[in-house]
Design goal:
Elements: E1 10-11, E2 15-17, E3 21-22, E4 30-35, E5 42-49, E6 55-59, E7 69-73, E8 78-85, E9 96-106, E10 111-121, E11 124-126, E12 133-136, E13 139-141, E14 147-149, E15 152-155, E16 159-161, E17 166-169, E18 174-177, E19 181-184, E20 191-195, E21 200-202, E22 205-206, E23 216-220, E24 227-231, E25 233-236, E26 240-245, E27 254-258, E28 261-265, E29 268-273, E30 276-280, E31 283-287, E32 292-295, E33 297-302, E34 305-308, E35 328-331, E36 339-344, E37 347-350, E38 356-359, E39 370-371, E40 374-375, E41 385-386, E42 389-390, E43 400-402, E44 414-417, H1 429-432
Parallel strand pairs: 2-10, 3-10, 11-14, 12-15, 13-16, 14-17, 15-18, 16-19, 17-20, 18-23, 19-24, 20-25, 23-26, 24-27, 25-28, 26-29, 27-30, 28-31, 29-32, 30-33, 31-34, 32-35, 33-36, 34-37, 35-38, 36-39, 37-40, 39-41, 40-42
Antiparallel strand pairs: 1-4, 4-8, 5-7, 5-9, 6-8, 9-10, 21-22, 43-44
Length: 462
């Protein structure tokens, strides 16, 4: 044991940062390491938390603060710190910073510190642990503070959501709506629906990059007409993004979706069963099975990017493997309900060979239109398919800014168009007129429009 006053401990992290923590819920446990880089043993006389209010610390297996004394670390050895944070409600809508310092006083007289830091966020809780279903006739999601949904939220009639509303979904949670939906986000204040894990799998991998963090959103039509409106709504990293279904009798429900993003789901992105739909300026990407599935009804997709690169990375973070499924599947084989699906000025692609399937008994009579698209599929042999550009082997690395998740470089998927993208300038100008701005607000006017929901700002367009 050395009393050399120059000896010091070394820390893997001299500051331990927690992602935002929901009040009354507590955080995941983070760990860090205290090293003795010296040849001689070092003795920690005692350790203590300066404020001892928010953080719960375990030093090398010992959570009892009264026993944090006379801790010996041999030369070249180390010990672990396990740290959690628990924050009482703050009474504020915005996140509140909480801090503390974990002090180490060595017998050689040295004092060293690990800084602890977290943000506490108050939430409106819907449901609770052990509660399988919470029911409402109507529900209005506001933007003042986030919502935390524990399990099944059943809304019998109308669901509305204001611009800027944020919904955090607990593991297995879902929203089930039996009536109309109005989710009116804006480009500046989108609505966000995602899992409630705000911490990280690894330093470069937030939990939100792993699908399956929650169940999904289900919209079921009853006997009276239903309408569903989603504007600038991001639905991220569940099992299913949005599932609309009706029995096919009576007036079919109508989905209107613009400026949205449905991304990173272990099963399906957008499912439309006996549902009419208008989808524009929307990204639907990275699903373990179909990104888009249509079965019954009339659906129109304009300037929509459908990109299927689920699990296309060199790190295994998904709980499910990618199915051998196309990005878009159109089922027109039912005898009871016709499916008429059209894609204008859109992109359908992915890393598998064939990303578009139109299952119809007679191709030559199929009424759906495919015009001005970039498609990774065999040439469509239907009467209303024209002005499309089909994938070539030389396209693979140039369609998007990034279609492969490089976790070591902190580079996530980005389905904006690469400067060499074959989707640039191929869209039909007349069909683009109702959509003068792309999802980001970039103008398509006075230029040759691009396929997909993102217009590339080339020099001629600036």
């Amino acid at each position: 044991m050395s009393d050399d006053p120059t000896l010091r401990l070394a820390f893997l992290h001299d500051t331990v940062l927690f992602d935002t923590v929901f009040t009354e819920q507590g955080s995941a446990t983070l760990q860090t390491i205290v090293y003795n880089p010296n040849q001689s043993a070092v003795l920690i006389d005692h350790a203590w938390l300066e404020n001892d209010k928010f953080f719960r610390v375990n030093i090398d297996g010992e959570p009892d603060k009264t026993l944090w004394e006379n801790i010996q670390i041999n030369g070249g050895d180390s010990l672990y710190l396990f740290i959690r944070v628990e924050i009482d409600p703050t009474g504020q809508n915005n996140p509140v910073l909480v801090e503390d310092n974990l002090h180490f006083h060595l017998t050689n007289g040295a004092d060293q510190t690990v800084h602890l830091e977290a943000y506490g966020q108050d939430v409106t809780r819907i449901g609770k642990r052990g509660c399988k279903r919470t029911e409402f006739n109507t529900y209005h999601f506001k933007a003042d503070k986030p919502y935390l949904i524990y399990d099944t939220m059943l809304i019998r009639m109308t669901m509305t959501a204001d611009a800027g509303a944020t919904l955090y979904m607990h593991k297995g949670a879902c929203i089930f709506v039996g009536g109309n939906v109005q989710a009116e986000g804006t480009r500046e204040q989108p609505i966000l629906i995602r899992g409630d894990r705000l911490d990280r799998l690894f330093d470069s991998v937030p939990y939100n990059y792993a699908g399956g963090g929650w169940n999904g959103i289900y919209l079921e039509a009853g006997s009276s007409p239903r309408s569903y409106t989603f504007s600038y709504t991001d639905i991220l990293s569940g099992n299913i993004g949005l599932y609309c279904f009706a029995d096919g009798t009576g007036t079919l429900p109508t989905l209107t979706m613009k400026g949205c993003r449905i991304h990173n789901h272990t099963l399906y992105g957008l499912v439309l069963v006996n549902t009419n739909a208008e989808v524009s300026n929307t990204e639907i990407s990275n699903c373990g099975s179909y990104c888009v599935y249509c079965d019954g009804g009339t659906q129109h997709f304009a300037h929509t990017t459908v990109a299927s690169y689920f699990g296309y990375t060199n790190i295994r973070i998904q709980s499910a493997a990618k199915d051998d499924a196309a990005a878009v599947f159109i089922n027109n084989l039912s005898k009871s309900a016709q499916t008429v699906t059209s894609f204008h000025n859109s992109i359908i692609t992915g890393y598998l060979t064939n990303q578009l399937v139109v299952a119809t008994p007679f191709d030559q009579y199929y009424p759906g239109e495919f015009i001005g698209n970039y498609l990774k599929t065999d040439t469509l042999r239907i009467p209303h398919a024209r002005e499309n550009v089909y994938w070539q082997k030389t396209d693979s690395a140039n369609v998007f800014v990034n279609d492969f998740y490089k976790y070591k470089e902190y580079i996530y998927y980005d389905f904006h168009l690469d400067s060499l993208s074959p989707a640039i300038g191929i869209a039909d100008s007349l069909l683009a007129l109702p959509y003068p701005l792309d999802r980001d607000g970039v103008s398509r006017e006075f230029v040759k429009p691009d396929a997909g929901c993102y217009q590339h700002p080339t020099e001629s367009e600036l």
